[in-house]
């Protein structure tokens, strides 16, 4: 996932300050595997409370990122992401006030170029914000920034710690949730879209995850020539957003 390209903050003191003051800038925190260090254990709890993804790794991985880590490294985004509580308030108010609102869920996008292109298309096609799971997706790296052609800084992005809870709350609030999958039997051209819409896509290799599918009101396919295997993720999203507008 391009660890070497992300901005790195190493050392317990600096990581702790970042977790307390700017947790939205952190993609994930890497801890030395089986360190037995009480301070690192406290930092892990702090990260989890801030809904920041944590991961245990071999010390040699931390050494490749920075020699000044003392057992912990924070990998940072190019921009701060929105916390779910603030995001939920915005989306629920839009529904309550009957303001049209479209949301994109991008899951399992490990390729920064794909994620950047999805951000660019989402902004161009009037998406209010994007939900990108904290787990299983690349961070908002310089490569994502470049691929987005500058739109990363203009698009509101939330990385909920638990996307299942987020989708459950949106569904209960009355949002229509649809997924895109080429294997579906239902064509996107035959579907009636709501003005309060969540459109979900998955990575090209893994597709739409089951934990997202179970919340979908429908999973749709985009017609294409039988000679073609599939659409690129960002292309499929662009078509889906255009058709649903």
Automatic annotation (TrEMBL):
Bilayer-crossing residues are: none
Which Gene Ontology molecular-function terms are recorded?
Answer: RNA binding; RNA methyltransferase activity
Which keywords accompany this UniProt record?
A: Methyltransferase, Transferase
Please give one Pfam family short name. Answer: SpoU_sub_bind
Alphabetical GO biological process terms: methylation; RNA processing
Domain RNA 2-O ribose methyltransferase substrate binding positions = 8-82
Q: Name one GO cellular component term.
A: cytosol
Q: Tell me which InterPro entries the record gives.
A: Alpha/beta_knot_MTases, Ribosomal_eL30-like_sf, rRNA_MeTrfase_TrmH, SpoU_MeTrfase, SpoU_subst-bd, tRNA_m1G_MTases_N
Q: What is its EC number?
A: 2.1.1.-
Query: SUPFAM superfamilies under this entry?
Result: alpha/beta knot, L30e-like
Output the superkingdom of the source species: Bacteria
What is this protein's record name? 23S rRNA (Guanosine-O-)-methyltransferase rlmB
Which organism encodes this protein? Answer: uncultured bacterium contig00028
Q: What is the lineage of its organism?
A: Bacteria, environmental samples
